[in-house]
Structure formats: C-alpha cells, structure tokens
User: Fold this.
Amino acid sequence: MIQEWLMTTLQLLVAGLAVTLVALSTQLDTGPGLTGASLVTLLSFGEVLADLIRNYTALETSIGAVSRLRSFSEGVVPEDKSDEDIIPPPEWPHCGLVDIKNVSASYYVEADGDYTAPSHKDLVVKSLSLTITPGQKLAICGRTGSGKSTLILLLLRLLDPLPSCGENMEIDGLPVHRINRAALRKRLIAIPQDPVFLPDGSSVKSNVDPFAEATDEECVAALATVKLSAFVTDRGGLDAGMSAADLSAGQKQLFSLGRAVLRKRVRDRLTASEKRGGILLLDEVSSSVDRVTDREMQEIIRQEFDMYTIIMVSHRLDMVVEYFDRVIVLDQGTVIEDGHPGHLKDNGSRFGELWAHGKYEPREITK
Ligand code: ATP
Ligand code: MG
Assistant:
C-alpha cells in the first residue's frame, strides 16, 4: 500500500510539473517544438523516477531476506552432533528390532547440553523400557497427553532423550545416538499425527514423492492403493498443481499413507534385498476417517508392511484388538500395561477400561 501511495504521489508530482510547464510555455510564448520536447522528457522523467523507487524497494526487501538468512545460519545451532557419524546402509533396518532401556525425555532441555536437570514433573517420558521384536505389530494407547507422540519423536530423534540415558536406544543393533539424523529419518518410514504437504501449487507427484525417487507408474499405483486415483485424475494428472486445502482431513491421511506405501515400494526396489523388514511408525493416521475407511487402511498397512515392525499410536481400540498383536498403555510417560490386546480387553485392565468406554456399538435406528 505504501509503495502504491508513493507511485501515486510521484505521478501527481509529474502531472503538477507538466501543468506548470504547459502554463509557462503558453504564457512565455515559447516555440511548439521546445514545449513538445520538454513534455516528452518530463514524462520519461516520471517513469525513470518510478522505476528508481520500485527497484530501491525491491533491493531493500531482498537485503532484508539475506539478513534473515544470515542471522538464521549464524544463530541456530544445528541439531547434528559430532559423534553422529554412522550412516546405515539403505537396507537397514532389515529386521526391525527396537530396544529402549530406561529412557527419559523432556521438552525443557537445552540442545547444547548445558541444562539444569528437569524436575520429575517436566519429564514427558519417564524411565521407559521397551523391546519390540522384529515384525511385531505394536499399538500404543493412552489418554491424550500421555506421551505417545513423544515416544515416536524419540525414535526419529526429533526429540533427544536426557543426556544421562542418551545411549540407551538401539535399532537393529545400532546405537540410535550415533546414527546421522537425516539418514535415520530416511530409513524409518513414519506418518506424523498432522499430515504435511508442500506449499500450494506444488505438483501431486512432488507431494507424494518429495525425494523424487519413484517413477510415475509407482506414484500412480501407490495413490490407487489408497483410493485417491479419482482425486489425481480430477486435478489433471500427477504433474498438476494441488493444495492441501483441496483434500478433506481424511483424504490427507490417506495421502500420507500413500506416501508411506510409495516409500516402502521404492525402498524394496532400490535395495532388492531378501530381507524385507523395516520399521513403520504411525501416529494416529486414521483419526479422521470413517470406520470402513479405517479398516481399509489397516488392511493396506497389513498387506504392504507385512514383514515390518509396526508401531502405531491409536485411539481406535477395535482396530487395535483386531489387527495388533501387542499393545502398551502409556500414562504420564510410563508404560502401565503391556500385553496382547485380545487378552487385556477382557480382564479389568486399564486397556479393558478404555475399551469399555470407547466401545463402538451400532445403535438400532428406530423411527
Ligand atoms: P495425543 O493423544 O493428544 O496425541 P500424546 O500422548 O501424543 O497425546 P504428546 O504429544 O506425546 O501426547 O505429549 C505429551 C506431553 O508432552 C503433554 O503433556 C504435553 O504437554 C507435552 N508436550 C508435547 N509437545 C510439547 C512441546 N513441543 N513442548 C513442550 N511440551 C510438549
Ligand atoms: Mg499425539
């Protein structure tokens, strides 16, 4: 607005000068040639002035961006540490064995390690020990705020455990604290609680395959698996632009699942290994879809990630009972129950309590 106002003022100034010029030339009786030449010069002077102002403001904006980038690169401590030097091979983790021993974590620890020990109430995960065997399908349940997503963040190293227990996590025999973070996040397949999309206008293909590793056929097949083919055809194909606002909440979750399926297929193709295991982390991936779609999603997950160790956070307990072979219940960052969902639901346990409260009973429709 200020720029537009400046332009208007400049043009008014030039108009004022032109009027003065014409008034003078008529009063002073100068030749028509001279008056014409002066008017043309005056008009181009106005344009030059406007260009000057426009370029100057563009320069100002760009310099502002450079200065922000500079202060970002100087001021932000990179998350990588010097001893995180293991880059596991692409087929890692081929079994999917997760071993967590006595790990605690808090969101209030300074990244540079210079911290005051957080008080017990600040701990979001408290002395948690968990061994997940290869191929196990583990569900994590618990009340809102019990630390389920935090556990997923710990496995992806988006949150560091307390330094005193930083070395207590292993995946397939490799100490997680020594693995390069970017490599770790590329090797594990994860779907976050909030679906993430590239900025509006990015193509469907770059959204489903942000690392540009898959072929067009693979992308189409993965989206067809999660039943989003119609969405892609409506948009005009894989290369058409899309925006996250075009998708409903449930469709966003299906899209995220499609992305995971695609990553798994590309991983299989690139590694061509006999050992097809891996780790899949799912954080409430079906919270916004209806039960029929939820069941379809679980079926897709079971078919595609058959050999994988699956760790899924879920509030849909009927799906947990049906599709998972182990469940842990978290409460204030500790595991309060661990067992087979089918057994736990019937014997007065906390899981049984959650099950009884959330049980889905289709009501009869009466007129
Ligand atoms: P939900 O079922 O709602 O997803 P959750 O079990 O996944 O819940 P978490 O997100 O793991 O819960 O949060 C556990 C605790 O950690 C909460 O009490 C919350 O206050 C705290 N917490 C979560 N994220 C942050 C954060 N970025 N900064 C500080 N505290 C956080
Ligand atoms: Mg959560």
User: Anything to note?
Assistant: Residues 32-75 form the longest helix (44 residues).
